Amino acid sequence: MLAAAGLLDGRRATTHWSTAAQLASEHPGVEVDPDPIFIREGDMWTGAGLTVEVLAERLRVSERQLTRVFKNEPGTTPAAYVEAARVEIARSRLETTDDTLSCIAAECGFGTVGTLNRAFRRVLGVTPGEYRRRFRVG
Predict the structure, then answer these.
(1) Rounded distance, CA 79 to CA 70, Å?
(2) What is the pLDDT of residue 19?
(3) What DSSP string describes 68-130?
(4) Is the predicted pLDDT of residue 5 greater than 80, yes or no?
(5) 26 in helix, strand or coil?
(6) Comparing C-alpha atoms, which of 128, 133, 78, 125 is closest to residue 101?
(7) Phi, psi of 76, rounded to the nearest 5 degrees
(8) DSSP β-bridge partners for residue 31
(9) What is the pTM of this model?
(10) 3-class DSSP assignment, residue 22
(11) Among 42, 58, 79, 88, which is most exposed with the fewest C-beta within 10 angstroms?
């Protein structure tokens, strides 16, 4: 999602090993490294598709400790970070495409338009439809 929005161009990033080649092929501006569990590149974090439970286990800390550390570094919880990243990708799609809200919700990992709406209200204070009406390019 981050690569599709252009947010990873010129950055090193990781993803699950099974999709690393596809990410590198579809986004040549991203330096894809499939080996690390996560990579912090400036203000951007990417991960290899691990759950908080698995990531905490790999780092040999509790889930609670990982959440505390994560909150101290990027300043949020892992779940809120993922939601904000998904909203950022959806914002870009709303600005630059005519895709339906259903399509955008599915492609950005929200699953349903209802989930997309709730996330937009939490993160931006507006619905996706309101956002598109204000910021649609072209």
Answers:
(1) 10
(2) 79
(3) HHHHHTTSS-HHHHHHHHHHHHHHHHHHH----HHHHHHHTT--SHHHHHHHHHHHHSS-HHH
(4) no
(5) helix
(6) 128
(7) -155, 175
(8) 12
(9) 0.59
(10) helix
(11) 42
pLDDT tens for each residue of 39-87: 888 877 888 767 778 778 877 889 898 888 878 877 888 778 778 888 9
Backbone angles phi, psi at 135, to 5 degrees: -120, 10
Task: Tell whether the model's pLDDT for residue 23 goes beyond 70.
Answer: yes
Burial class (CB in 10 A: 0-12, 13-18, 19+), 128: buried
Gyration radius from the chain CA atoms: 16
Residue type, position 13, single letter: A
Q: Contact, 30 vs 23, CB < 8 A?
A: yes
